[in-house]
Amino acid sequence: MSRSHLLGSPLRIGGQVWLLVGAICAGFFFSSGSGAQTTRRKPAQSRASSTPAPQWVGNYKSRLDDGPFSHVILANDLDLVIKEHHATTLAALTVLVKAPPIEDPLTHKLFLRLAAELLFPSGRIKPGDDTGLKVAALGGIVSKKVHPNYVEWTVTLPAANLSKIYPLLRQSLTASDPSTERIAQALQDLSRNKALSSDFSRQEIMFALAGYSTSPGIPGEVTPEFRDSLSRFFKQLTQASHLIFAVVGDIDRETILRQIRENFLTLPAGSPVKETPSAPAASASALQYAVVPSNDGLAHLYVSFPTEKLPDATVDVLGSALSAGEMSILRQSLVDQRTLATAVSFQRSDVNHRRYITIALTTRMDQLDEAEVYLFALLHQFSGATPSADELVRAKRQLALKGHEADQSASAISLALAESENQVSFQEYVHAFENANKVTAAELLKAAVTIFKLDTAFVVEAWPDKAPARTFTATTYQDFLGLTLSRAVQKLAKRTEQASANLGPHDTLSTPYSGNFDRSQLKPQPWNRYSILRGPSVSVSESHVTPLIVIVALYAGGPLIEPENSKGLTALMVNTAIQSLQSKTHEELWFQIESLGATIQPLIRDDLFGYVLITPRQFAPVTVETFLDILMTPQLNDENVAVAKKTLMEQWQADAARPGNNAVDKLESTFLGLTEMHRPLAVLIRNLQKMRTADVQDWWNQVQKETPPALLIVGDTEGTELVGPFAKRMSSSRLQPYLPPPMSSFKTPKRPALFEDRQPNSSSPLLAIGFGGPSLASANSDATQISRWLFKDVFDEIRVDEFYYLRYFAGLRNVQQGTGNSALNQTLQQMDSLSSNDTCIEAARKQWQTQRSEEELNSKARALSFFQRSLFSPDAEAVSKSVETLDSMPVASLRDAIRSVFSLQNALACFITP
Fold this sequence. Notes:
This protein is an alpha+beta fold. Strands 1-12-13-11-14-10 form a six-stranded mixed sheet. Strands 4-5-9-6-8-7 form a six-stranded mixed sheet, with helices on both faces. Strand 23 (797-802) and strand 24 (807-814) form a beta hairpin. The two termini are 53 Å apart.
C-alpha cells in the first residue's frame, strides 16, 4: 500500500521550501576530470579523478560544460580544489577556515563571528570600508557565513578580475592584529545584526547541537585580555593547514594553481586542526529541548536527528521525499491539508564531525503544539512502510530538479566543493549524483527507521515576542508527545488508506531522451521572437547548461486592474487553476508532474499574472500538454476555490504577522493614496473572505480565456521545437489582445512626509521609506537596478515594485538611535553620501553586472528579467539595448539618474514604534 499519498490541497504561492542540497546537488554537473598534481602529503582521497559522466534519472546525460578538476595540497598544507566551469564568464573563490578548538564554547562562537568580520573583505559599498569597496569595484559579490567548526567566505566576480582578488585576500589574512577600534566596531555590528534577525538562524541550531549557547554574550568593551586572546586565535586560524580553497569558473586550472602558489604559499603551515568527534554525549541517548526568541511574529520548529553513518545520498533522497515538491510527505499534510505550517524544509549538516539532519517548520504560535505532534506522527508513519517505486522516482527527480535550479552558478559549485572537502571527501561529492540514483526503497526505509527516533531528537522552538509562557523540559516535552502521538498516527493511517485508493499506477516515467549537444551553445543565446497566427507571441532563448526548460505564460493585467473591493482575486484564480483539471484529481495531477521531475508555479505581479513550468527536456512533450490543460481548461469549481482560498488565507495571515510587512503595508497605504493598487495585507484578507466561485470564473473569462499570453521559453531547447503544441491549441480568431486601463498620472510629493504608527508586535522601532519614480521607459528607471546594490547596506530590505508609470522603492531597517525625523534624516544622509560618490556608484554597477551574469544561467531568472524589462514590448532587441545603455552610461549621468529618483522631494517615510 502506498504510504505517502495523504489527502492534499492546493499549490501555494508563498513559503518556498528551503532544501539544502549540499554536496549532492552540484554533483549532478560533474563528468570526467584529470590532472593529478605533485603534493607534499597524501590526502584522504585521490588528487584528481577520472570518472564516467553522471547519469540523470531516465538515462539523461548531464550537458554541463565540464572541464577537468584537481585536488591539490600545497607544500604548506593549504588544501586546494580547482574546477573549470566554462558555461559562465564568472569565477568564484570559496575559502573555508577550520576553527582551532577553544575550551569555552561561548568564546569560540564569538571569535568565529569576529573572524568573519575582521579577516575577510566585505564587498560593501561604504566609503569607510576601503578593502570592501575595492572588492566591489572588481564586481565582487561576497557571502560570509559562520558555522560551529569553520568560517565560510565566497566571492563571485568576472573571471578576468579573479587574480586581483588574491592580494586583497592575502592582505586580510596576513594583516597585523586588528586595532581595538576595529574590534569594537565589529562587536557593534554583531549586536546590530543580532537585533535585525527576523528569525532564529538555522545555523544557530548547529551551534546548539555543538553544545554552544545561542547567545554568545557580546562584551561591552574590548579589554587587553580579550584582545590578546582574540589575537592568538586569529594567528591559529590563518595558518595554511586550517584553510581550504575552492576555485570554480571560466578559468584555467594551471594558471589558478600558479597564482594561488604565488600569493598564499608563504602562509605559515601551522598544525592541522584536531578532528576528534566532540558532539555532546546526551544527544546520542536522550531527547534535548530548547526555546529561543523569534522576532518575526511567527513560531518556528527545528527538529534535528543524528544520522549515524548513513550514506549522504540516502539521506538526501530521504529529505526530498519528505519536503521537496507539492506531493512530499510534510507539505501535503502539514502545509496543504491541515495548514499547520506555512513552510517546511530539510537540511543536512555536519557538526563536530558528526552528521545531523534538521527539519524546519514555520507556523503560528497557537498551532505549534499540533504541528509538532503531526510532524512526529508523519515521521513515525514514514518509518513503517516501504515507499513504492513511483514514490522513489518522484523523490529522486525532485531532488534532481532542486539541484539543477540551485547549483547553476559558479559560487554554489565552489562552496559545495569546499564544504565537501571539509566534511566528507571530494570523491564522494563527485559521485554523489550517481549514488543517489542507486538508493533503493529498502535503504530509504532502513534510514528512516534508524534516524527518526524521538529519544535522540534535538528540538528547538523559536517563539515570537509576548508568546504565552510554557515551561517544558526535555522530559515533559517527551511526555506531551507521548500522550497525543498514538492517536495522530491512527488518523494519518486512515487518511493514507483513503488517498491511496484513489491513485492508480503511473506509467509515464520512461520517456526516452533524444537530442544533440552543441558545446558552442553553452553560453545563453539571444532572444528570438516568433508569432503564432491568431495566437500568442513566443520569445525563445536557448541555454544548454542544464537539462531543464522553463516555459512562462504571462498575461497582461493582474492585480492592478482587479475590480473594486476584489483585490486578491487574481491570486485566488491562478492558484485554483493550478490545483486540478477535469481529467485528473489534484493528487493525480501533481504526482504525475513531480514524477517527471517537473513543477508548475504561479506568478503574480502588480501588472501581470501567469504560470511557470520547469521541466526536464526529456519529458517536455508530456509536461507541456499538462501545462496547456491548466491554461486552457482549469477546473474552477466550488471545492477547488474553497481549498485555494483556505491556503491563501493562511499564507497572508502569516505574512501579516511579520513586523516588516506591516511597516511596508502602512507606508503603501499612505503613499499618494494608492491603497487599492498596493493591496495591503489587511485588504487582501478581508476581500478574500467575501469572494465566490462565480467571481473567479468571471475573472478567468475576462482576463485569460480569450486573451493571448506572452510565451517565454528558456533553457535546453532548440528554436521552435516546443512551439507546436501552443500553436495547435491556442490559435483562435476569438483571441483579442487585452490592455488594462491606464493608471492615473504619478504626482511627485512637494515635500517629504513623515508619519508614525504603533505596532504592538514589534520589539524594535522600524523605518520604511518609499520613493516615487519616473516612467519605466526612461533610463532613470533602469538606474534603480544599480541602486539596489548602492543602498544595500543602508536598508535591511529593498523592494522594487514595477507599474506602468510608477517606480516604488521601499526599504526597511531597525532604527538604533533617534526617532521620527532624526531617524529619517540619518537614513537620507547616508543615501545622499553614497549617491554623490562616483566610486561607490561605479562599484555598485560592477556588482549589478556580476549578479546579472550569474542569473543568466538560471533559466527562470532569465525569462522573468527579460519580461520585467520589456513589459510586453514586441521589440526584444530594445530590451538588450536598455541593458547595454545602462552598462555604458557615464557615471555622471548615472549619478544624476539615481539622485533624481531617490531624492528628498520624492520621499515618504513611515516610522513604526513598538
